[in-house]
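**User:** My hope is that you can spare some time for a protein that puzzles me. As I understand it, each token names a local backbone shape. I would be glad if you read both lines and explained how they fit together. The protein I mean follows directly.
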Amino acid sequence: MFHIVQYRPLRLITQNSLSSMCFKLMLSRPVAFAQLWKSWFSSHCLVGNKNIILMGPPGAGKTTVGRIVGQKLDCPVIDIDDDVLETTWNMSVSEKLQDVGNEQFLEEEGKALLKFSASGSVISLTGSNPMHSAGMRHMKKNGIVVYLDVPTTVIMSRLKSMKVDRIVGQSPDISLKDILQFRKQFYKRWYDIRVLCGGDIAAEVVAEKVLDAVKRYQNSELETFISTRSSRSGRSMEKDSCKYFSDVVTEGLAPDGGLFVPEKGLPKFTAGEWQSLIEATYIDRAQVMLERCIHPADIPASKLAEIIGTAYGENFTCSKIAPVRHLAGNQFLLELFHGPTASFKDFALQIVPHIFAYCIPRSCNYLVLVATSGDTGSAVLDGFSRLHDTDKQRIAVMNFFPEDGVSPIQKSQMIGCQKENAWSVGVKSDFDFCQTAIKQIFTNSDYTGFLTVEYGTALAAANSINWARLLPQIVYHASAYLDLVHQDIIPFGSPVDVCIPTGNFGNILAALYAKMMGIPIRKCICASNENNVLTDFIRTGVYDLRGRKLIPTFSPAVDILKSSNLERYLHLIANEDGQLVTQLYTQLENQGHFQLRKDLLEKLQQDLVAGWCSEEDCLAAIHSVYSTTGYILDTHTAVAKVVADRLQDRTCPIIISSTAHYSKFAPAILRALRIAEIKQNPLSQLHLLSSYSPLPPVHWGLLETLKKKGNDHHQVCAADMSMLMSHIETLIQNHFM
């Protein structure tokens, strides 16, 4: 083991003089002394015997930031380049590289790391250290690796100003940009914490961000979840039963019937952090955002990267995952239908099954219940069927859908997506009954307890009542804005409006959450069809279900009267007043209506405006847009387009969420485009659309699913709670016993 020269930051105040000052302060100002002691103790506990290891490309500022962090923590600072490599080799790093060449240099560098040992220090790695696996595994044993993530364009500018024209791995055939991009895969493999660093950010600011990130990493108990119906006094009494991300993913619905939300809200990104993601891919944006929303104690960054890569790597047909397309004028479409089941639900439901499988305990089987108004069912079935075989043995899915309340193609798709661990049940009622039934089952402790004791099976939810469903949806709203900036449509900071076809309020809530996290969304436009309870509520503050009956429409995914996720938004604008939320929803349940206070309605209307669209206007919009642009809107996107035309003021771009591929609603599309006589067989409808050459191609996954043999077999159930419970027990017996 060689001797390590450690840099210890210079102090203007010696330890003796500091002790003397503290003693005087303790006598004269005990409160100030207590605050100073708390700050000192907190800083020293932050490191303990662990090292803080700074990693990143050359030019990321690791050395400078490391010295500042070490000074703030009063702990040793070690620069691998200066204090280890050059001391060991008795020559400069550049001389060593020139002497032995790229490959041998990496090996020599790795050997030096393997002989290195330190504790309670801040360590700045070289830019190439992460390329040596054995060396990095050795370093991680006693350290928290912090990745200083600086955009490549910024790094290249810094290296140019530093007159650095060659780094390890570079050759005449490989450009500096290419090698920097190549190295990112190694940085992503090893880090525990990521710190986003924009172009103009000062080293002092980066150091503070490092300290904040390490504090977060070591304090998972600070990121707890509460129910939308819990009172503040109740929370203080229930500290022993805190809920963390893994808990809320597993449980889905809170025991009091409310929905889980993060107690301290969502993280907010700075403008510089958002700007550092402008050049990033969709997968990288998702990784960065979800890391900040999910504590690494629940899912480590490396596992999260694996999950995101699996979800979006091969299952989406468009490389941009969620591309933004210009429609006309100031209107842009956010295309959310490139996943395997052709709707926006894929964004969450390709990820959630893997998150769920990782978070649940291994000692229990789980049956995931889901209610769908159309698109969720096939997305859930497809997502959970892609799990590893070992996970499918302990996780099954039961999907309830309104037997006569979805499009023929949606029904065929849900039935065609059934697998050995995933089943669909048609219910002779509407979506609201299905959703309410699932909530009642979850809050029936006698029944859930019986399933656990008798069958060793717990229930879980995959609807957007599950918090994990919402997080991936926040990503695509943020990504759409960043894409407009990247395309030079707007500069960062300029506002946009978004218009979203809305039924259960989950998608539009995700846009509101993106706004809270720092995306400059001005207004969220809530677009309803003829089931326009949300439009009335947003305009008047009165949520009134009395006398309303669900109207089947061409846009079945928003044929909803009870919008579950509205509860989360009301909890937010009511300053987390769970008692008020409980009162409102108790009144809705018992009397069929409630009314917001004036101050809350004013808050709501600062974020939201609303309108609705008739069936005739929906079809007319599909025809008009196709006639003028050649683009086909699905029926839900057409609803949003009609409402956007009426409500936008044209002072900023408006992003319309295109939530499903048009081919899922072939009869309505054929009718709108006045193509031919509509055939009843769903597969025939798709073939008819395919045969009409001017149209864009039908969705690949949809066509493949409908071609499967035996996709007309499924269970049908009466609208009766006892019957639903019987189906659940039968599935558990067949799959798990």
In short: The chain has 34 helices and 20 strands. The radius of gyration is 28 Å. Residues 279 and 486 are 7 Å apart (CA to CA). Confidence is low (pLDDT under 50) at residues 1-25, 36-43.
